[in-house]
Amino acid sequence: MENSHAQVMQDKQDSLWNSIRKDVAVQVEREPILASFLHATILNHTSMEAALSFHLANKLDSAVAPALLIREVIDEALQADPTIAAAARADLLAVDQRDSACHSLYEPFLFFKGFHALQAWRVAHWLWQQNRRSLALFVQHRISVVFGVDIHPAAHLGQGILLDHATGIVIGETAVVEDNVSIMQSVTLGGTGKESGDRHPKVRCGVLIGAGTKILGNIEIGRCSQIASGSVVLKSVPEKSLVAGVPAKVIGEASCDQPALSMNQCALSQVDQLG
Ligand SMILES: CC(C)(COP(=O)(O)OP(=O)(O)OC[C@H]1O[C@@H](n2cnc3c(N)ncnc32)[C@H](O)[C@@H]1OP(=O)(O)O)[C@@H](O)C(=O)NCCC(=O)NCCS
């Protein structure tokens, strides 16, 4: 039973990678100027993992740690912990399903820096768990410089996560982001500056966090809640709530059962009711 489940999962994984390769082959015909780039990043690789380590390493390349060296670290992480690649696949599907600007799986894989930052963070997190803290912090630093996204390697993030646009996202050391959360640009999951130790937000499954929102302190954002853009959230939020304002208040119920999945931001128009 378990074996057949594993086989089904393997087939699904291959179909994701095959679908990326198929769409990229079409792009080679359509845009010959990108042919060598598309071959180097996708078509020359036999697995998503190999392509991911190649592409991320080139993004994170620096004089201190060139792409070849960084790729070895990424490969090591991917081989040691298969949940990293599984989470990458779930993240890719999340972008494809939730980002209306995404029309094919190859687009986030090659071009969306929220996806790149998240996968590079997964490597930094693995390094942190191995107690290789200086290298984890080095990777965090490169992610921050290259993608403008700053996620502490000790934070805990689930899978099926969308970092949309991603510029300016900051996630602190003791933050938790569970599965299937969608986070827009310029969101901070930070401390208030008044607490030490466990001082960052805990964001439960299925939450949608609007652009520019600041969630501060060791507070809980209940599952499937929706936070309006520009909110400053300082208190815990019950599940399935719609929250808005500075400081944020509950102004209603989330627009649907899974706001992060539907990316339904219509209910955010209720923010106007705040006056
Ligand atoms: C301002 C700050 C230091 C809190 O200061 P404080 O004087 O201890 O404030 P309190 O938590 O006691 O709240 C006092 C009131 O101000 C409000 N308030 C606190 N911070 C606020 C903010 N950033 N924006 C708007 N209102 C805020 C609270 O809601 C509260 O209102 P109430 O009395 O009507 O309930 C803190 O909230 C803050 O903003 N720190 C900066 C954190 C930051 O930038 N973190 C990012 C780290 S990456």
Task: State the main characteristics.
275 residues; serine acetyltransferase, domain 1; 2 domains; 6-stranded mixed beta sheet; 5-stranded parallel beta sheet; disordered C terminus; binds coenzyme A
In short:
This protein is α/β, with parallel strands linked by helices.
Polypeptide structure, described:
- There is one protein chain.
- This protein is α/β, with parallel strands linked by helices and about 280 residues long.
- It folds into two domains: about 1-150, serine acetyltransferase, domain 1 (Orthogonal Bundle), CATH 1.10.3130.10; about 155-275, 3 Solenoid (UDP N-Acetylglucosamine Acyltransferase, domain 1).
- Helix content is about 45%, strand content about 15%.
- It contains nine helices and 15 strands.
- The chain has helices at about 1-30, 35-45, 50-60, 65-80, 80-100, 105-110, 115-130, 135-145, 260, and strands spanning about 150, 155, 160-165, 170, 175, 180-185, 190, 200-205, 210, 215, 220, 225, 230-235, 240-245, 250-255.
- It has a six-stranded mixed β-sheet. Strands 1-4-7-10-13 form a five-stranded parallel β-sheet.
- The radius of gyration is 19 Å and the shape is globular.
- Strands side by side in the biggest sheet: 3-6-9-12-14-15
Summing up helix and strand content along with how strands pair, one would put the structural category as alpha/beta
Unreliable parts: 266-275
Secondary structure: helix percent: 40-55%
- The percentage of residues in β strands lies in 5-15%
Tell me the name of the CATH class of the largest domain: Mainly Alpha
The mean pLDDT is 93
**What does the main sheet amount to?**
6 strands, mixed
The CATH superfamily label of the largest domain reads: serine acetyltransferase, domain 1
Radius of gyration: 19 Å
Shape: globular
Q: Secondary-structure element order, as H and E?
A: HHHHHHHHEEEEEEEEEEEEEEEH
Q: What is the first-to-last residue Cα distance?
A: 57 Å
How many DSSP E strands?
15
